[in-house]
Queue: 2 jobs
Job 1
Amino acid sequence: MKTSSSLLGELSKHQFLRDYWQKKPLLVRQAVPQFQGLLDPRELIALACTEDIQSRLVIQRNDQWEVHHGPFKPKKFDHLRKHNWTVLVQGVNHHLHSAATLLQLFDFIPHARMDDLMISYAPKGGGVGPHFDSYDVFLLQGLGKRHWQISAQKDYKLVNGAPLKILQNFHMEHDWILESGDMLYLPPHYAHNGIAENDCMTYSIGFRAPTHQELAEQFLVYLQDKICLDGIYSDPDLKIQPHPSEISSDMLRQVEMIIQRIKWNKNDMTHFLGSYLSEPKSNIFFDPPEEPLDHSEFEQAILTDGIQLALKTQMLCHGNIIYMNGMAHAVDKPAYRELRALADVRRLNSRTALSQETLELLYIWYQNGYVFPGPF
Ligand code: SIN
Ligand code: CO
């Protein structure tokens, strides 16, 4: 696979971010030259049949759509027709090293924005219908060919009662046939429709964009464990009310003043964001080592083989804090530099001399299954 130099065609990463990212679509022919895909349809179907992996099967019969949710029994795929269905598997980068390596080509976008790699397989005619997504996506063609149609339309009306988001009125403005290695970038809310021309696998590299509502709700959840207000509601000057059932203005005023005492600072904001964005999704489970090395064996193993993040690990950092799978760890400068280097490229090479603080944290994370020694 490789190569980041052709990933955006003639454009530099800087030009792409300035002119296209979140703004307009970009088609790149041979973005990943000779890309044949990372797995075959049979292997993708095996993933769709695996516990803890999110997958969907979308079947189209005339104008009717059906959606089934995995994990599936393998025989589910034995009785499907030869056309007009598609299976989509989320989070493949949590299970395949090669998928995690593919995502590294997109490292010019911060990890905090990265969602996951979804891979779809469809025989001829398969697709999920005309729709729009709420986030940025790079659609990289693996096996076969896909006919992509796109539209900048602002009519987002969806078909009523359909089990998936299908646009009622899709007005195609551009279309292309994508072949293996070609890639189409789409900003959020850009209408698109991809139809398999033949046996076809598409790799969707998606970038998360939390809604303002989601951020606000989650921040309030964070705050509820943080706030600490002393005092008890009091009314030593209580007067007789003509209507005892009425909530008095005095009471309202006092409660308003109590609530206004809820404060947060930049540290709370950072702490919330780092923990929230690195928090594993609910279907993610880590595999701690069955027979863990002891501390000195572990240090020796790092020296010999280096260390890497488990595929499911999300590691972010800011200031002096490392966010590891939803947990915050404040560290000194040398440890911060070492751990940030690990977070950037998801591995540290062997023979890297590490501070004691870093080694202590790495050992705890190793026991949790978040990192493990070994060459990449
Ligand atoms: C697909 O791979 O079939 C769907 C990708 C998308 O439209 O977002
Ligand atoms: Co889409």
Job 2
Amino acid sequence: MPSQPAPISESGTSGVPKERALKDRGNLFEIASKQFEKAFDAVDLDPDVREILRQPKNELIINFPVRLDDGRYHMLKGYRVQHNNLMGPFKGGLRYHHEANLDEMKALAAWMTYKCALHDIPFGGAKGGIKFNPREHSQDELQRITRRFTHALGSNIGPEWDIPAPDVGTNDRIMVWMMDTFMNVVGYLDKNAVRRVVTGKTIASGGSYGRQEATGMGLVHCISEWAHDENFSLDGCSFTVQGFGNVGSHCARLLAKKGAVMVGVGDWKGYIANPEGINPHKLGEWVNETGSVADYRAAKAISREQFFGLETDIFIPAALELEIGAAEAEALRCKLVAEGANGPTYPEADDIMAKRGIHVIPDILANSGGVVVSYYEWLQNKRSERWDHADVLQRLERRMRRTYAAVRQTASQRGFDWRTACYALGLERLQQCYIERGIFP
Ligand code: NAD
């Protein structure tokens, strides 16, 4: 059992920041690199392989104009970082966020390399984004921004080269606009053969059943494995979620199906709590109507500080990176942190949680269900097949449980913490491949 920290006062004197602004967060790539170096040391990675993996292979910045609905032109900055493609085509999400920046993309791209290698999926790692707030734009503007950026990327993406997918601020419709633009510009001679240039598409346009809920579902498979190992019942336990978008909302619904009770949730606009439970289906309807969990009637508004101090069994960060610093790690009163978001935890917070006996299922394992089903979507497109829903979900479950078991075994046999165990499995696969292939020329 974790030790109980001091209760959180109404005025937020717990030391948990009211919000985490970009300037306060630090450089994500530098912070992520600390994690990578710790894992490189743990597996005694070859110095040449370290050098290769320390930096991404390609970093692309594109400034491009878009016509707004009122006729004005507006310049936007887009990124695509391709970290590594040793195991297969670059693969990674596309993010629309007003704080998107190159160092964030570099960290997120590297995490994708390690996530795919951990699962032994034949993809490398990439990440992209455009620096703007999608909430401030109409659907027509979003479509023009997406198409113009895809056009500017040109053959820097491709079905056997680099395959984007949805991430924060993007969705299946945006993926379909990307696919359609790519088909008409780069792949116009054989449109169907390039359908798999993006994954996470709508079903009608070549997406896979199960992709929408895949990341949340993969997370729940990990949580179920943890509960099984700990002899802990999910039925009747409590959980809190930060971020109620694709990952957070699906995870909440699936946990509720197992009898777990959501007692707190928050997003970009605010945090709410109800010790009696918040129905994630009804909350989802509210979020669809209003764009946020804030002001939901069947719960009371709380501050970010209070949210982090809520007593709960499981905490699921499913918003942005670097949300759990030292103060949050001290404030948490939970047994398990299951990282739905990429990179939510600072290295010092990891140490504090370990000391306090809080278990952590690390991001590259916990949120990997999305890339697993993206891989299935890519395979279905390549083979002109459509797998039924149950088939996709069964394959996802089998793969998540298999990888979870491999991490469990690596951690216990080699005395690694779970994050290091996840990296170790991925890094050793990458290293083996470099040793066999050598560096050209
Ligand atoms: P999303 O855009 O659907 O949802 C993001 C959620 O985070 C929203 O509820 C938003 O309001 C909230 N949020 C944004 N800023 C916040 C802030 N400052 N404080 C609190 N909440 C805030 O995005 P998503 O696809 O659900 O992705 C969430 C996380 O999961 C990201 O870290 C993403 O990289 C990661 N992830 C997503 C997938 C996927 O398949 N979508 C796969 C793997 C990892």
